[in-house]
Amino acid sequence: MDGGWIEFNNNALEFFNSPALMEAFVDILVCAVPIWVAVMIGLLIGWSWRPRWTGLVFLGFRSKLRFLWTLPPGLGARRFWLAFTALSAFSLCRGIWSRSRGRSRKLEKSSSAQELVDSASSSAPAAAVQELVVVDDASCGEINPVSGAPDGLSNSVTEKDLEHLLNLLDGKDGEMAWQSMMERSTSNMTYQAWRHEPEMGPTVYRSKTIFEEATPELVRDFFWDDEFRPKWDPMLVYVKILEECPNTGMMIVHWIKKFPFFCSDREYIIGRRIWEGGKTYYCVTKGVPYPSVPRRDKPRRVDLYFSSWVIKPVHSRKGDGQLSACEVMLIHYEDMGIPIDVAKLGVRHGMWGTVKKLHGGFRAYQAARKLEASLSRCALMARITTKISTDEGTDPGRKCLVRKKGLS
């Protein structure tokens, strides 16, 4: 009994000493309070607008109905209040428990990697640009953030990241099991979505979108064009290009996304690069370290971020045999510091609305490109790619990517 009490005290101290867990607790609390307030306001308004004849029913119980004006009002409301509080507390405790267990497991696995980071940063010159990519064993099915050293473009996004994208698409990272989430279509767009829930780490989402009457080049420019993106993505409120490479097209950009009022905004430092093989484009974007942009309390920095896609032409569903449609296979995961259950709920309810905004934005971009000859700087950078050739490998369903000699 004493051992269990000591373990409880240790877990409580670890919770209060962890800024991430405390912030998640505050986010959940702030998220639940507006719902409670809205429920009570609705009850008060409903009671004030009740029909007059109801007063006759409660005339003999006037003295017993005074507790209706307390908080929360009414016995039924009290039960609803307690049930909602218990549900929120259960979700919060579950998230805290999973985070505490995951943290203890990650400490053991990351100790050796941290030693490599320290040795690399101490032995390398101050002006050198280096990066250490921490890759877990594929059998674990886990995704760890990329840790690096100084600022710069060199090795921010490499062939290892491209290989990671292909492994996720093929489901080879720990024999990933995908759960179907959605399958919808419109007159000129088809969308499918899946998710994979690893034992540790954020949920991984995979989607397949087919745009009718679209070219891979236009879709590539659309996803890369940060100047046009705020027109269809209302969450993006700040964009800045930090660095770019005219030889490889690699970029480092700074994003700030606006979250709902009950959550703090999120900040992203994203490295991105495009590989090209035939008519297929492999677009890789991920979170990268960048000490020149210091961390702040708000907006909160998102370190673990990976959002990449493969764009290629496909046959139209019209059945005319023409490659007039474009397929986009997306892999996305990030750790926003929100409990996993809450994040999954938000994604599930907001997915189709986001897809419709994206599709509407693409059609608007398509129309704008027909009228305007000039391209934004981001769209121009999207045309600078690393050329690769695709050869059939021995692994079925998988292609071996070979870099062309003499090309960057």
TrEMBL record:
GO terms for MF: lipid binding
Entry superkingdom: Eukaryota
Keyword Translocase on entry: no
Domain START intervals: 178-367
A GO-annotated cellular component: cytoplasm
InterPro entries according to UniProt: START-like_dom_sf, START_lipid-bd_dom, START_lipid_transfer
Keywords: Membrane, Transmembrane, Transmembrane helix
CDD domains, alphabetized: START_STARD2_7-like
Transmembrane segments annotated in the record for this chain: 24-49, 80-97
Protein name: START domain-containing protein
